[in-house]
Each structure stands twice: as structure tokens, then as C-alpha cells.
Amino acid sequence: MSVYLEFEKGIETLQNEVDSAKLMLDEGLLEKLQNDLQKEIHKTFGTLTDYQKLQLARHPDRPYALDYIRNMMEDAYEIHGDRAFRDDPAMIAYIGWIEGKKAMVIGEQKGRGVKNKIKRNFGMPNPEGYRKALRCVKMAEKFDIPVLFLIDTPGAYPGLGAEERGQSEAIARNLFEFIDIKVPIISIVIGEGGSGGALAIGVGDRLAMMKYSVFSVISPEGCSAILWDDPKKVEQATKALKILPEYLMEHKLINDILDEPLNGAHRNKKAASYIVRDYFLKSLQELESLSKEEMLQKRYEQVISIGAFSEQ
């Protein structure tokens, strides 16, 4: 059963009527209802607020990293463990082929259903998850395989065990190491890009965001609790944080915004996967035209251009 958000209720009603018309084999009524449905989709998705777009980024039907991997990879083989502590199911890594190109795809996986969400820790990696990502990127570098990161996390797991095992060090280590990896690295925010949990696999030659994704230093809920001590101000916080792709593009914090199917990636997972696949291949073609030295220099310049500082 598809899940419809509050602002999608008009679409849900018309979709149900379309399904009924199909069963009745009434072609005239079906055509009219399909036209009405398209108009409602255009109307709804043409006037979304910042908070509604945040809800889409968290939509329970939205494709997760595994959906993208299954739709665009061939002969995919999963890699487990960080060779130090354990395997982290919140961080997945697959080596395989994308349209005949070797690829290492690493992503944060939220999980569907209660048992799977618990298994995946709701997409919040522990330090061993980030260390697994680093191990896999090093492996990719050794065998000259480009890397695709799929970012989708509320943030790095803040539990006691994670802190004891060096959560902040694991994130910082990835930021430090990925700068010098001598293969193309392309990062795409496919849902939520939360704080250091997203940054830890966000360093690369290209950083793109899906149209209905978010990238923020803190969740709007956390922001409203800290600044106003009022959970009801989440919508205000969402707008103030400027976490949508168009805002980040305006400030040159990301390279590209990837369009989605008209009514969102959650309504057409395959189409969304092909958009990600095509962007990866296009970016790879551009990066492979550069020498290793040029690629690393451009990556370094891109990273240090984020933010500003002054010497007193």
C-alpha cells in the first residue's frame, strides 16, 4: 500500500478513482480521471513549501540506497565489515557494474518495517560504518574503480558505544582521507543529509542533491528545540535553515540538482534510479578526461572553498 502525506490527499483520492475506473473498463471515465490526476499532481507539486519538501525527503516510500543499487547495478557483490570491530548494516557497500562501468557504490540504508529499521539503526551509522566506507574506498582506489556515495541519514549515531569507539574521529578521518583518493568520487544526497553523518561520505569531485532532498547541519526539530524551545516551530526552522537544494546551489555548496519524476522519487523508484545512474556516468566521463593531478587539485579547491574565514 502506498503512503500519502497530508498534502497528497487530493492525489490519493483521484488515484483511487482511476484504479476503480480501470476495473470497470470505462475508457471515457478513465481518460478524464487520468487528466484530472495529472492536473492535481502539477498543482500539488508546483506549490510545495520548504517543510513539505522536507517531508518528501523523509517519505516512507522514498527509494533508499538499496533500491538504487538493485535498479542500476549488475553483478553487485556486497562488502561487509571494517576489519576492526564489526559490520554496520546502516552503511552498505557494493562492488559491481553500472552500464558496463566498474563501480563501488556506498550508501546509508534506513530500512523498511520495524525489524529492518532496527537492524539498520534507522540509517544512523556507527563509527565502524564510516570505517567500512573508508576501507571500501581504499579498495576501490587500489583497483582503479570509481566511487558513488548515496547519502541518506538523519545523522551519525550519537550513542554511548559509538562515542566510545571514536565516532568523531571516524568522520574526521574520512574527510581527511577522501581528499587524496586517486579515483573519481561522486556523492549524491538521495534523501536526508544530516550533519556529520552525511559529510563523512560527502567529500568528492561532485556533490549533487535530488530535487526533494535536504542537507543540513542539524534537523529542523533539533533547531527549533534549541533556538525556541518549541517543537511547533519546525516549519519556521526548516525555512530558516535553508536546507533545500536550491539554497545550497545558490551558495555554491553543491554542484548539481538532480530532477525527480514529477510526483517525486517515491512514486517511481526506477525512474529515479536511472536519473542517478545517468548523472554518475556523465560525471565519470567528465572526470576521466582529467589527469589524476588535475582531478585532485579541483577536488581540493572545491572543498576548501566551502565557508569563509579571516585572519585577525
Structure in words:
The protein starts with 8 loop residues before the first helix and ends in an 8-residue tail after the last helix. It is of the alpha/beta class. Strands 1, 2, 3, 4, 5, 6, 7 and 8 form an eight-stranded mixed β-sheet that branches. The mean pLDDT is 93. It has two domains: 42 residues; 252 residues, 2-enoyl-CoA Hydratase, Chain A, domain 1 (Alpha-Beta Complex), CATH 3.90.226. It contains 14 helices and eight strands. Helix 1 packs antiparallel against helix 2 and helix 4 packs across helix 13. The radius of gyration is 20 Å and the shape is globular. Strand 5, helix 9 and strand 6 form a beta-alpha-beta unit.
